[in-house]
Task: structure prediction
Amino acid sequence: MTAMISQLFLQHYWWIIISLLASLLVFLMFVQGGQSMIYSLPLNNLHKTMILNSLGRKWEFTFTTLVTFGGAFFASFPLFYSTSFGGAYWVWIAILFSFTIQAIAYEFRSKPNNVFGQKTFDLFLFLNGSLGPFLIGVAVATFFTGAMFSLNSMNQVHWSTTWYGLEALLNVRNLTLGFAVLFLVRINGLLYIINTVDDETLIERSVKRLIANSIPFLIFFLYFVISLLFSNGFTANPITGKISIEKFKYLHNFTEMPVVMVLFLTGVIGVLFGIGITLIKKSINGIWFSGAGTVLSVFSLFLIAGFNGTSFYPSLYDLQSSLTIRNASSSLFTLNTMMYVSFIIPFVVGYIWYAWKAINNTKITEEEMTSKEHKY
Amino acid sequence: MIENVDLSLVDWSRAQFALTAIYHWLFVPLTLGLSFILAIMETIYVRTGNEEWKRITRFWMTLFGINFAIGIATGIILEFEFGTNWSNYSWFVGDIFGAPLAIEGILAFFLESTFVVVMFFGWNKVSKKFHLVSTWLVAIGANLSALWILVANAWMQNPVGMIFNPETARNEMVNFWAILFNQVAVDKFLHTISSGFLLAAMFVLGISAWFLIRKREDLLAKRSILIAGVFGLLSSLLVAFTGDGSARTVSKVQPVKFASMEALYEGKTNAGLIVFGVLKDTDKKIGKKNIKAFAFKIEIPGLLSVLTGGDKDAYVQGLADHISGNEKLGIISIPEKIRSGKFARDVLASYKKAELVNDTPQIQAIKEVFKDKEFRDKYFRYFGYASIDKPEDVVPNVTISFYSFHLMVVLGFLFILIFSVALYLLFKGTISDKKWFLWVALLSIPLPYIASELGWLLTEMGRQPWIIQDMMTVSKAVSQISTGSVITTFILFAVLFTVLLISEISIMVKQIKTGPKH
Result:
């Protein structure tokens, strides 16, 4: 019994870690958000260089968070890793592809003799910036809307469509979350640029685009949230583990876990506040409110996807194959071992913060961009 | 229970993983080694205050940056391909294999990615000491990440520290330290990082030699040769030492791989070490596979027995010992292992049947069987053999194993010679005049890359048909997706990686020709 309680605790503990990594990833995708505007935001080439050098000094964080998110998911909920990655093949490959072309684009774009020219690498950045967040949003939406798979007695996945994940793009709710994430990261990208560059014209242009991105974000986000609250969910019987459909499951999750609801609402207010103070008070600190708001909102969305006996990866093809944090997790021993490893995370956050501040203490200026110092 | 799979799907999935791994490994070793060379150079700069050392550090740092990004780009695909292309594997061993990957992200990748930004952009933003610490942390982070992925790979060669759970149908971790300190992991880590150090040293030596050939950047080149020479010589000695240890471990935990890399079909005492040899087909066969013999060989008599068993009378096992068994040595034949594996598979099938009809007493009884040490050691240990059709299927490609191993070893000794000569000529003060050597050094840059890829070829091809030694064959590990999808992504990745490689080499050559900017 003690072991069971411990395992249940650790399953929840690891779902919190996964949720935290996912929320940090969405926040850090401000890099992608900024990249998606490299053709529309800068007035001239200097602006583009400033934008890409502002964002480019953080791309490794986003990338590393994505990799760690994948690794942590593999370690703590390997059945999700084998099921979703091995079945929704094309969605994950498209995401990987978009991040692969980003990794080299920053370093290569301005280097002489890069063979394919700066325009090609800028296109890579644009593609990663637009497709990456959108596809990640679509993939995460399937945590709520489900996917077409079944598991055999050996827990091996069989995907029931020949689209291998691309069918997720036919679901309006998936698309809505995809677009909501895309516009959210664009908002955060603009707020981050405003915070880090020293150029009035560029800041003015960023502020103008903030409104243009906030409106579609709100439309897509509200549509997704409202449809989520009124939609059916997949719930697991706490004793037998049997999965059944529950009406208004996610609404129930919010009401039955009021702390999560408060976190979610605080997060939404944080994002709106970040946008508001930038537009109204011309503050440059909107990114911190919007960033914290993003983390809280995404974090709480993940909690209602996995907590309270909810299936976090429902199967639309075979209900009983649906994944929950109980049936998809690693063993007690592995979760326990990994818990000790996770204790280092505050230390990691600490040194990231220290190094981040050290680099961001000085703003991106025209002078630096025209000097011989290392730049993208 | 375990579905039959389309072999072309397996082949394409293997090809895609091999493609990604080969490209990834073109970039990673340089990151592992050059990061330490940069840290050493910058330490000298900080300690002496000599601006020339800063200039030297920054020049090599530019080249490091070009290589670093592309290593990351290919690395992310490798990590996720375990899920996308090997999903059955991911479940079967995810409880063990996932942990090192997660630890790699938390402990190593963040360290590397955080401080690499300070390293590139912090020269005028942070103090000298903070910058130096950042450079060292990048080197430590990069090598720590190698540790965890190699721990994961070592477990595939020598699965330890786990127990099979019939309920979840997977292997579960029971001893983290056994996995971390797995002898294969220790050998592999030391051998791999030292080979990365060697490769980076050769890269620095070769490019510095080019500067001397062109009579440019004399001071930068000579100082770089000093660092690369010392670092490279020590690394190449370490590579030889750890390579020897690694081969001894392989002889114990993967004896079939060992016999294949020595092309040793019949076991014997006083076995000679083949320094170099050329293989030819013979009419003799093991099953349907032709036995190879030496058309030509240079052999040191008795040395293989001495290296593996301590004296020349020690018996070195051949492939025949493993296929037919050797009662005297306690080696079980492959047909016997197949029988044991099939028995274990049948017990698991009985468990799954009992689960289906909710037969609790039967479930409990079989669970006890799986906990029984004798069942685990005698039967479940050979679970993977249930998927083997013919005994000869467990023999990897002898030609590839033999040549990749021996070429790697020959190159390893050549590197010791090159670094020794470089240091000798440098200290003698005649290195600039020895054009022949400068050309040798320059033209040797690709050689450690070849040796390094050969090492991985041996590791992975020599393990075939297993994805996890004795536990799971590659064909049972593959994701059940359409072959067409994998062919398409193979082509996409092949084009992308090639495009990136072309661009990388072109940029690198231009930066080298331009020389230091600062």
Remarks:
- Chain B is about 70% helix and 10% strand.
- Strands of chain B lie at 162-165, 170-173, 268-269, 273-286, 289-300, 315-316, 466-468, 472-473.
- Residues 272 and 301 of chain B are 4 Å apart (CA to CA).
